[in-house]
Amino acid sequence: LEELTRMSESNFDIQSPPCVLCGWTDNCPEKYGEKKTYVEQNLTVHYYCLLMSSGIWQRGEEDEGVDGFLITDIRKEVNRAAKLKCNICKKKGASIGCVAPKCKRSYHFPCGLRKECIFQFMEDFRSYCWEHKPVQIFPDKESRGPSQCTICLDLVEHLPLYGVLKSPCCKNAWFHRECLQYQALSAGIFFFRCTVCNNKDKFQEEMLRMGIHIPEKDASWELEENAYQDLLQCYQHCDIRRCLCKEGRDYNEPDSKWEIKRCQSCGSRGTHLACSSMKSWEQNWECVECRSIFAKSGKYSKQKKRSLATSEKTDGTTCLLEEPSPKYPRQSPGSQHSFLQCVILSPKIICQNNLSPCSRLELPPSNRMTMSLSPLMSNRNWSIRKKQLRTQRREVSSILKELKQQINTKTTRLNINTENIWNTALKGFRQRNFRPTNTIEVKFTNCKNRLKTDTSTESKHLFFQLLMGHLQNSSLFEGSSAKNLSLDLQALKENLYFEAGKMIAVSLVHGGPSPGFFSKILFNCLVYGPENVKPNLDDVVDIDVAQTIKKIKYSSSLSSLQSTIHECYDFLAAAGCLRPITDFCDKNMLVNDLLTYHVIKRIISPLESFRQGLKTLGVLEKMEMHPVAFSSIFCHKPERLSAETLCDLFTIHCSSGVKEVGGADFWMGYLQDVESGESVVTLEDILYFVTGSFSIPPIGFDPEPTIKFLRIGYPIGNRLLNCLELPITKTYESFKNKMELTIRNTLRVERE
């Protein structure tokens, strides 16, 4: 019935043209994304259908095509999908495919939703069919009885169903999928978090994995025009029973006896200085209601009168800009917001800007906006940022090539077991004859099909890649994606932090991959010194520690601050920050000391040992001289390969005879087809076929990759010379078929 209704509407509703990818006329932004029609191009498309289609990427600027998706690319994708039948509705045009190995199911986006497929709006925008979709694991010992959804408060069954999701950070937090999706669309990436414990990183990671779309935009309540206008009005009224001012209760003359003073506790009552017999504006004043509340609670006598003139000033701090992951090729539409909404100060601070800074109430980050630019950057700004990163990485490449001149021809062999990468690498680095300046040979002891000793760069690439992956997930580091050093006393005793720093330095100079997982605070401590770095709450990895510091930071009065300090006696004593607090202004210094201890001082020994290891081959010295350039490889993952990147990477050696048959044109056209998804191989497969590496190392390749066109039957990847030998063919179809057949079969054999 639903299908017949939809077909009926598509036949008679001429004002609602169907989406070119799914064929549905429905216009439901919450389910299918914004539906846009472009009359000149005769094109209508759902945004989510475009995002999840398997054969298209955003290659244009933000204002080009459809949110950066070029019209020509969309047409190609429509043509590709026209050949594929949907496994659900059995109609053509299925542009989305399951990414599970050997699964050939294709479907439309709306059909996939109905069949409970999972669409991951992150990284490569993967899609999983109903059979291969990721699921959450529920322990058997957990209660199977229903509980309340913490968003809609209706009952939700504790069952492994598509419509039920469990919080990864709270044991008893359960949600309806639909409730979570609506909350994510409303809150956006900066405010979407667990409704119970307020965790953001772990919660968002799990929800993205389970197919919840979290748009990169500010929360809907932040985008309302003049949403905080009423809160920006300061209270200007004298509430004393007998007002002495002849000009009236609303008259306010600053720096005179007729200046209005607001209640220091609630800020919602006021008095002229003369009406309350106050000689100075610096005197405290509380309204009758607040005095009554304090008197009943027994706290009024404990309130200390303090001169506001001696209060310490606190300035607003700006928010750091967050960079989108290079793996995010697309941005959600409508993510821009006006500068005016970025610069509204906290209502509590604005309304009491005549008070001393010490009497201002500090609000949690979720309720406080500071003078800063939005963390969200437009696609155009991100495009500029990518160009900057490329420039910085080219600079790093030149510096590392300088350092590589220290490497001599004497060889050191490392016997590596890929199943025990850390211990065998550690043993190799600690052997007596190991010298960082020697040429490294890698022998894989547990790989029967490999050569006994492989002197090519292929084994080194694989070894350093596995080693960096192990380090990222080891106990030496803590955090989710951007990591800081942890405090592992056993590792410190065994000098493992030094060895880890040494391994990273050797990897960079010997042609291995970059770490790419360092947090900004760790990188800054390494290059500027820990004494010159000021941490903030976002740098605290331990959730319990962060919550305790927040509780102290957001204390609203001296009494609540002292009470919190009493509760956290052991916590403060362990950090060496236990001290008597007699003034509310001491709070900021206490918070800064706690942050410095937990983020920096606590790991000062591992940090120093790690820095000593990074000095190997002069890497740390170059990092200190070029901090901006090196941050591009230590704090950012390598950017996704593109056809343009590979074109620039390879130098073509081409004879005149080859030019006549279009050999170079065939090569560049093939890269475009691979990038647009019209091939069974990927750009990473091509790079690996030639060099033995799936990514471009920071130092680049030695020798530089080249292409030769020869009278041969099939392409050959010479990894010793990084040379791709291509066959001369008469037609592009023949060239493409030979490329795909050879690369696919070669990689399949190597994987087996």
TrEMBL record:
It comes from the Eukaryota. Residues 16-133 form the PHD-type domain. Pathway: Protein modification; protein ubiquitination. The keyword ATP-binding does not apply. GO terms for cellular component: nucleus. Its main location: nucleus. InterPro entries: EPHD, HECT_dom, Hect_E3_ubiquitin_ligase, PHD-type_Zinc_Finger, PHD_PHF7/G2E3-like, PHF7/G2E3_ePHD, Znf_FYVE_PHD, Znf_PHD. Pfam families: HECT, PHD_G2E3, zf-HC5HC2H. It is found in: Nucleus. Keywords: Ligase, Metal-binding, Nucleus, Transferase, Ubl conjugation pathway, Zinc, Zinc-finger. SUPFAM superfamilies: FYVE/PHD zinc finger (SSF57903), Hect, E3 ligase catalytic domain (SSF56204). One of its GO terms (molecular function) is ligase activity. The keyword Transferase applies. SMART domains: HECTc (SM00119), PHD (SM00249). This is G2E3 ligase. It comes from Asarcornis scutulata. The lineage of its organism: Eukaryota, Metazoa, Chordata, Craniata, Vertebrata.
